[in-house]
Amino acid sequence: MQHEIKVNEITGITDAKVLSGGSLLTNFLRTNAEVFKRDRLALTGLIILVFFALIAIFAPVIAPRGPFEVIEADGFWLSNEKPSTDYLLGTTNLGRDIFSQLIYGSRVALLVGFSAALAVAVIGTIVGLIAGFYGGWVDTILMRLADVAFGIPFLPFIIVLVAFLTPSIWIIVLAMAMLLWRDTSRVIRSQVLVVKEQAFVSAGKVSGASNLRIIFLYIAPSILPLSALYGSLAIGWAILTEASVSFLGFSDPDVVSWGFMLQDAFNSQALSRGAYYWIIPPGLAIMLTVMSGFFISRGYEEVLFPRLRKH
Amino acid sequence: MALLEIRNLSVNYRTQRGTVHAVDNVSFDLDSGQHLGVIGESGCGKSTLMRALVRVLPRNGDIVRGEVYFKGRNLLELSEDEMRDLRWSEIATIPQASMDSLNPVQKVGKQLEDILIRRGRHDRATAKRRAVDLFELVGLDVERLGHYPHEYSGGMKQRAVIAMALALNPSLLISDEPLTALDVIVQHQVLEVLKQLEEELNLTIMLATHDISVIAQACDSVVVMYAGRLVEQTDAKTFFSEPAHPYSLGLQQAFPNLVQPKDILVSINGYPPDLHTPPTGCRFAQRCPFAQEACYQSDPVLTSIRDGHLSACLRIGEMDTLRDAARQPHTWLQTEASRLVQQNTHNGKQEPDAVATQHDDDTILRVNQVSKYYQIGGGIAGLIRGQKRQTVYAVNNISFELKRGESLGLAGESGCGKSTTGKMLVKLLEATHGEITFDGIDLRTLHAKNQLEFRRRVQLMFQNPFEALNARFTIYRSLAEPLIIHGWKRDEERLERIIETLERVNLRPAEAFLDKLPHQLSGGQLQRVVLARALVLRPDLIVADEPVSMLDVSVRAGILNTMKALAAEMGLTTIYISHDLSLLQYTCDRIAIMYLGQIVEIGPADEIINNPKHPYTQALIAAVPVPDPKIPSPPLRIRRGVPRPTEIVQGCPFVERCPEAMEACRHIAPPNVQIAGQHATRCHLYGEHADSPKLAPIAAEAIS
Lengths: 311, 704
Prior knowledge:
The structure holds two protein chains of two kinds. By secondary structure, chain A is mostly helical. Chain A has helices at 2-11, 24-38, 40-57, 59-62, 98-134, 136-151, 154-164, 169-179, 181-196, 199-206, 211-247, 258-267, 276-304; strands spanning 72-73, 76-77.
């Protein structure tokens, strides 16, 4: 026994289970699983997000009524009802069930959140990879484009877009995709500049690997957590943006979102009537989903910058 | 009474895997005026010991036992405030990579004065005077006080840091690896300063190093540490003439020596034991060629051989016999660790020279007037600021040829263009001018579609093994990658080739390494994997850029020996790039010395070392520290750092630093003079202008 341990010391072989190599996808999934295993906060964020996702998916089952369904009693609208067992969060001044609106509102939030996050992460990553790897005039053109995107104020840009196009939640996704890739691409590019100078990338070149092989097999895996970080940050941003745009009254009037609810409450003077049951739930829902995005991004940051970890 | 008395000092680190006993029951004294070297591999506890003395251990480090008496006071019982008063004013430290510790936005003189005023109770005027004294003491030009750190060369920065450390008149100077990561010439200058301090200040110095030549040149006594223990303690002369611990014997045999080159360097196979669970017997037993059954059972204690010479070895009585045996390289293959690593090796018996002499007239590589220029500055922002683009002449018109099976060393200080040259040879960089032909193929004609065969035949080996492998790839995947690129479709064939290659580089059993990730291996093992990756396609030419500079001395030799043996066996042509001339002398048939992008001298390795012609080569060789205290290193006659090659020089690029500079050197480019056979140099001393009037010696800057 003593002898066997010696063998291990010398050859440096440990009995630890070793991970075998794998495709880009499995590597990516493994890194991500690692994030949530390591960090409770990220896990909390993930749980909140999954919770809202389930609500969004099963909204028709959970919500007792449609979001715009007007509740009538004795031929009158049942306006400004206080919370009761029938109407968990009361009704609006147009006689709509607030609880049902809250449930349906999660659909918009998550739809906007995820699609914008995906768009931002994908566009930003690709632009960053290409600009960083090829450099030269490709880099110059892409980065000057990013500068232009940096120069455009975000909310006014959306308001102008809404003015020209029909109001829809997709405008917000479009606007975010058009502008917010700038941050992601800048950061990814700088990371690519670092990674591409590392010796293992040169080693790939020396053994004859093609540019695409180098970008996707050598460089991309080490920057994917960074895309995920910016993606999860974008979830929060997108939800906040949707809420602000709705609150300013530029949203699609036929779709209920949490921001829309807040605007509705604001216009109906819910605050002065002390109808906190109308204001606090959508506010809290926005806060929680946005926070979940930031919690998850914290987890990625700790993976990317291990120095943040507490010993 | 000794200045510093260390008694039974033990330091533990708390880690996730348990407790590491990094320093284990170490005791020794340091007398006033003594220069003590602490030597050992990385992970032997040198740095921990030094940090424990001034109580700046990392947060997870605890001093669990022992006393440290400094001038009679136990440092470990002082309050943090008292300790802070003591640091710098009584015990000064020069940390590793200390050159970076200067504040880049403040003039060096100001930084020095500030310390004097804040800590030394000087006023502005006396502080200024003291700063001047300090600069004179470390041999820096007083005018330099008004300069910013970026205007300093590496060696000057190092001296400025020493001046700062000395500012408050400490009694003890502690320095951790003061010379690591410095060029030979800078190393030499710093050693000179340290020696001079000994004479002028009677300063007590304690320095940690893995380089025995530093001990030989700068220390008068030695403490050898292994696996957290003190295994030998003696004065420097005895350490070299009569070392009394097998580990010390191994370190000396593993070290290349320019003066008495060894035919085969020994490698102390294996690694220091895991200090989470130190072995019960002698900690060195596994790597010791003289280990007996008893060594695994009982732990040797430090025993006095004679006054002041202590060693912890059970066979201390037979040391004379062991010392003779240790000189035989094959002795070191008889350790437990070697047996495990080298089962059915090629016995290390290849005669590299046999193949080296087989050179026919088969030239495989031809480098013809090759240059590499870089443009720096410019860009849109630079254009608006009105900056001019600058050209850096990284490599300037070099030519050489290499025969099949030959090995060539490229040497020079950092920034001389040797790595750029290496990258051009493997076509990682394109030459700006000139022609590189590999086996008849002009590298300029290669592009993405037709380069695959060239990529198979020419490989590069990297300096830093920790970076050269993709951290996400297993060893198998890393080695399979070149094969996949080159169209090896079948898994079994790939696996077979990979296992065969791993065994060739002495990673056995190869199967055990396949599923490992790079961070699970040691530096030496990783560098073998890097070598295996270079060899897996069975190339014809390998360019090795500083292949062992990141590794411990004890494993360096093993890798070099493997490379040498494999090159002979596989008929490889190799180019070694290194700043370490003793290494090149050991591994290469020919050596080319580069300076500011030019080859200033080229010739057979022994010729270059023993009969250098160019003043720059002479300086480089003189600067290599000799691991023997009886041979004092010769004074260095060149000065200043390497200038930045931003303009094409009319005359000789070395003229500014050359002790022999002549009038002609300024204006006329030196000719390539054939000294004898293959030995050639670019220097006017041997050309038609040899009688040109000498230039007045350059104002001796910063040289003792």
